[in-house]
Design brief:
MetI-like fold; globular; MetI-like; mainly alpha; two-stranded antiparallel ribbon
């Protein structure tokens, strides 16, 4: 009796109601949101100072005639964009853009195709597989400037190994970087060699992630090696192919270092003047920072639109055999 009365005299324990918030379709505790916000502050601050503020400044500069040589700056509206697209020297902009499009298309076609073929070969039982994997990836880790200087020697008209080999087999030699007909092709060969290993590793990882049960089922149905690749492996690799295409496209449109090192000032007759090199020429050679900013924003819009379209196409063609 006493224990029951004592129990009745006790106050019930307090129930602490934890406030919850629904955010982006999920429920979070307020304490979790506070902790997460604190952890995000350094990353957000870094993003603001390294991306948001520079982008805003570029947008502002694109509407001015800011000249880094004279220091003059005043608002000019859309004059910089009009100058690039329809001005007296707009041919230089379209020439650089045309060279960049050709460079990007050829690089994507060869880079993806060759990397995929090498990855398929390395996925099979070939001798020295580990050595070959390392050798294909080695150019990726070599600095661009260093490898560009080495390839300048490869392309040397008099003592370069490429012309020496052509002479030995009885073929005419080439001027490589010194001719407007072959300079862009020469840089393309270098760029494909330089970035090939990264794509090979991506494709190889995708191939090794494909379940053996799919391939075994195909073999039981009598599929050949080509049919296994075309009907099973390649469809399952579409997300990786889409990613490689997107990254290669972006990389092709922003290529600069190797072009500037191997063919300074746009090469012979501006044959290797790509869009980023043209932006550099406007900003730092001519001092036209306003026009360079406008050109950079046009490039950003082109890359954004093409990447968005490519992502939509890639997302609509995913395959799942489960």
């Amino acid at each position: 009796m006493e224990s029951n009365s004592a129990a009745r005299g006790q106050k019930p324990p307090k129930v602490h109601h934890v406030k919850k918030v629904r955010l982006f379709g999920s429920v979070y505790h307020l304490s979790e949101i506070g902790t997460g916000t604190l952890l995000l502050i350094p990353g957000i601050a870094f993003l603001i100072f390294t991306f948001v503020i520079p982008v805003i400044q570029v947008i502002q500069l694109s509407f001015t005639n800011y000249n880094t040589i004279t220091g003059a700056m005043r608002g000019v509206g859309f004059s910089n964009y009009a100058y690039l697209l329809t001005g007296s020297t707009s041919e230089y902009f379209y020439q650089a853009l045309g060279h960049t499009v050709v460079y990007a298309v050829v690089r994507l076609a060869f880079d993806v195709t060759i990397a995929l073929l090498i990855a398929v070969m390395l996925d099979s039982n070939v001798p020295l597989k580990k050595f070959l994997r390392a050798s294909y990836f080695a150019p990726v880790v070599v600095p661009v400037v260093a490898s560009s200087l080495i390839w300048i020697w490869f392309y040397d008209v008099n003592i370069g190994p490429f012309n020496q080999i052509l002479s030995w087999i009885g073929l005419p030699t080439s001027k490589w970087l010194l001719s407007e007909k072959t300079s862009l092709m020469s840089i393309l060969i270098f760029s494909i060699w330089k970035g090939l290993g990264y794509n090979v590793i991506l494709f190889l990882a995708g191939l090794q992630n494909i379940s053996d049960s799919y391939l075994e089922a195909g073999r039981i149905d009598g599929a050949t090696s080509w049919q296994l690749f075309w009907k099973i492996k390649l469809p399952l690799l579409r997300p990786i192919v889409s990613f490689v295409l997107m990254m290669d496209f972006i990389e092709a449109f922003k290529v600069f270092t190797e072009v500037n090192v191997m063919t300074p000032d746009g090469g012979p007759l501006r044959s290797t003047m790509l869009i980023v090199n043209y932006i550099y020429e406007l900003a730092f050679t001519n001092g036209r920072m306003g026009r360079a900013s406008a050109c950079a924003l046009i490039l950003f819009v082109i890359i954004f639109i093409c990447t968005f379209i490519q992502r939509r196409i890639g997302a609509s063609k995913t395959v799942d055999y489960d």
